Amino acid sequence: MNTRTLTRLVVATTALLSLSGCMLDRLSEIGAAPKMSDISNPKKVAGYKPVTMPMPAPVNATRQANSLWQEGSRAFFKDQRASDIGDILTVVVAINDGAGLSNSTTRTRTNSNSADMNGLFGFEGTLGEVFPEGITGANLVDLASALSNAGTGVVDREEEVNLRVAAVVTQRLPNGNLVLYGRQEVRVNFEVREVVIGGVIRPQDIGTTNTVSYDQMAEARIAYGGRGQLTDMQQPRYGSQVLDIIMPF
Known about the structure:
Blueprint: H1 3-28, E1 88-115, H2 127-130, E2 141-172, E3 178-188, E4 191-201, E5 211-213, E6 218-228, H3 229-234, H4 238-246
Parallel strand pairs: 1-5
Antiparallel strand pairs: 1-2, 2-3, 3-4, 4-6
């Protein structure tokens, strides 16, 4: 057995074992509700990366003599809104987007060219000897072409999402902006609905009710999906997904 055959055998065996393990896991969950993930520190989740953003030059805080005001404060009294790592605030997502686009293009072109040669230094009678039978000087060249293109495109899209998600401040950037991460799971019967949200906000945009709108988040990432029996039925089988990728037609 050569090296190439052995490599293919190892790859095929590994893929088969992985697929078998996935199938066994799914078979073991028949009749049981989908498991919900454990509550954990978002910074320890696989794939978490600290956010790095362009920062302005640092400004040293100054205090005025005989003054109760502290630079950067928004009020004399303690602010109950989220401002430090570990604080919680609510992100309000109210997306109601619609887009309509309609294009129509039509192009038509017609060309016609005709050339005859009734006289050629007295040799016009010998054209039949050079060209196929039936060719005379009066019908030597006769060209015509026509081109017609028509294209129509229509796009009609409408999206609406309304939800509120509690998020945790995971990082405070040097310029005072806050990095948020929130995750919410709701299980109804055998279907789990999952909402994940993250982004960067300014403390000034946090409302008096400790809420912030999604459109005030920079680098916003909002994911709304599910997993369970209904989602599984709506997904094509693995074989169909593979064929969709590799089939050229």
